[in-house]
Amino acid sequence: MRPLLVVARHELWSRLRDGTAPLIALVAPILLATLFGLALGGDDDPPLRATIAIVDLDGGEFPASVQREALATEELRDVLTFEEYADEAAARTAVDSGAAGAAIVFPAGFSQGVGAGEGGEVAVLESAESPLAGVVARGMVDRISALVEARTLAVRAAVAAGVPSSRVKEFVEANGAAGPTPTLVGDPIAGGKVDLAVHYGAGMAVLFAFFVVGGSARSLLTERQNGTLDRMRAAPIPGWTPPVGKAAVGFLLALISMCATWLSSVLIFGASWGDPVGVLMLIVAHAFAATTIIMLVASGARTDAQVDGFTLGVAFVFAFLGGSLVPVYNLPDWLQQVSFVTPNGWVSSGISELAGTGAGPAAVLVPVAVVTGIGLVAGALALLRFRKGMFA
């Protein structure tokens, strides 16, 4: 343990003395996150708007009541516009052309089926170009579905209890399933809006974590070229001591960098990344994964210049694919799926969940577990490659 601490202490002192650690870990990510936040985020965001197409093939009370309740909801009053279309094909054309962000299709006989306890399904058409409208439409349909299910169960229970068919509707309404009108409680668009200051703040924190660790990986190759590692190999210490000691410093600096960027986003813009415990869990997991991934790519390098190139490539490819530079919903569908191959994608998803919905730490257990798993696999492979290559 003592040799490990000696290596780590020497690495930390070297990084602080040459000035690379403060610049890459603190100045650069905070400055870029601030610039992105000022340009694209902050309190001057343009007002949100969403147009939803309504296809009413039912003609009953449900479709009309949904629109009335949505427009009466305070959170949606200045956000939502409804446009009626004759059929699903016309609504699909409107969604594809951008005239509507999403569409809700009420099938024929929907209200009658609900009243008879037979249930019913409402279709939603969405466009990747208007994620907000899709979130609103799905939120509305989820509430409609919950009400339909409750109404259906109530009717079936009444019939099973022997209530005459002529009195079922009256009985159901008198016992808590009074009407077809769904009440939209709370803010159904809460999960659809994440302040861009939060998005780019988190994105810069995640991106620069790779660069911070890259400095420690680079010094490992430099010491190999200088012959320092050969002298360490002759000493009575385990072969994994140098890479692990330097990786520990890289992890520590990456963690400090991400926390500093998070704090600056909160202090400068008043932006909330969500539950602090959940955010910290994601940050620790990503700092660990970034450390082991960079040490893995460094294990295949022959010069410190190669380490710099590998680090740059990995950092920016992961940043693009994982939504650190461009919001994931702006990417093609197949790239949205690819984003979850990267730790960046899982961190971005976790931050969106925390900041967008107000969820607690439990909501990010899966992203944290996946990112940690990526780190463990990369770390194990890195140690094997260092053992076979660098110390051979």
Characteristics of this structure?
four-stranded mixed beta sheet, 2 domains, abc type-2 transporter like fold, 392 residues
User: How confident overall, as mean pLDDT?
Assistant: 76
The rounded distance between the terminal residues' Cα atoms is: 23 Å
Unreliable stretches: 42-47, 177-193
The number of strands is 4
How are the strands ordered across the major sheet?
Answer: 2-1-3-4
Count of alpha/pi helices: 15
The rough form would be described as elongated
Helix content: 55-70%
| Quaternary organisation of the protein chains | single chain
Q: What is the structural class?
A: mainly alpha
Number of domains: 2
- Rg of Cα set: 28 Å
Main sheet overview: 4 strands, mixed
Sketch the topology as an H/E string, one letter per element: HHEHEHEHEHHHHHHHHHH
Q: What is the beta-strand fraction?
A: 5-15%
